[in-house]
Amino acid sequence: ALELPVEIEEPHAVHQDVGQFTPDQLTAVNPAAFATAIASAPDHELAEGMASDLRVTVLDEVFRRMSAHFEPKKSKKLDLVIQFHLTGAQNGVNDVYQVVIRADQCIAGKDITEPPKLTLRLDAVDFLKLATNNEKGMDLYIKGWLKVDGNLILATRLQGLFMLPDAAEGEVPG
């Protein structure tokens, strides 16, 4: 079973099966420890986790944290709406999230309904790898696992707009 580290009050990570997490515990997971857990988990365990009842909670939390990890200095006054279609849910319905980068700010969530300038379609497992810096967007695109509707050059810049965790280093760059 997929285990994620929890760093709530103690500096060391305690591993816990993803099925035993409460939503409150997921919000306490350290980003670098989460990235390390994603890097070390086999794909079938990640797929099981993304097929579980916690799928939406995990995805909501990743998108919720985007604004905190956004680096406005790198956005160069972008005015961009990105729509993510995340596949792989048990019910076959895509989870749809939007990220709005405007006026050097970033907001993300499910309740945004602006017309997107860029749409990305990928499996939720691949999205977790992308969001935790365990996979590069261009690599996913070349493999055919990431579909892009819109400006491909702009899509290649997206990862650089966020301080992504580094699983190898065990920290989030600042």
What's the gist of this structure?
This protein has 174 residues and is of the alpha+beta class. The chain is built from 7 helices and 7 strands; from the N terminus they run E-E-H-H-H-H-E-E-E-E-H-H-E-H.
Describe it:
The chain is α+β, with helices and mostly antiparallel strands and 174 residues long. The protein is 34% helix and 23% strand. The chain has 7 helices and 7 strands, in the order E-E-H-H-H-H-E-E-E-E-H-H-E-H. A 5-stranded mixed beta sheet has the order 5-4-3-6-7. A two-stranded antiparallel ribbon has the order 1-2. A hairpin with a 2-residue loop joins strand 4 and strand 5. The longest helix has 15 residues. It is globular and about 40 Å long. It starts with a strand and ends in a 17-residue tail after the last helix. The relative contact order is 0.16.
**Uncertain regions: pLDDT < 50 for 5+ in a row?**
1-16
| Percent of residues in helices | 25-40%
Q: What is Rg?
A: 15 Å
Beta-strand fraction estimate: 15-25%
Which secondary structure elements does this structure contain, and how are they paired or packed?
Elements (H helix, E strand, L loop, with lengths): L2 E4 L7 E4 L5 H5 L3 H10 L2 H8 L4 H15 L10 E8 L7 E8 L2 E5 L8 E6 H8 L5 H7 L2 E5 L1 H6 L17
Parallel strand pairs: 3-6
Antiparallel strand pairs: 1-2, 3-4, 4-5, 6-7
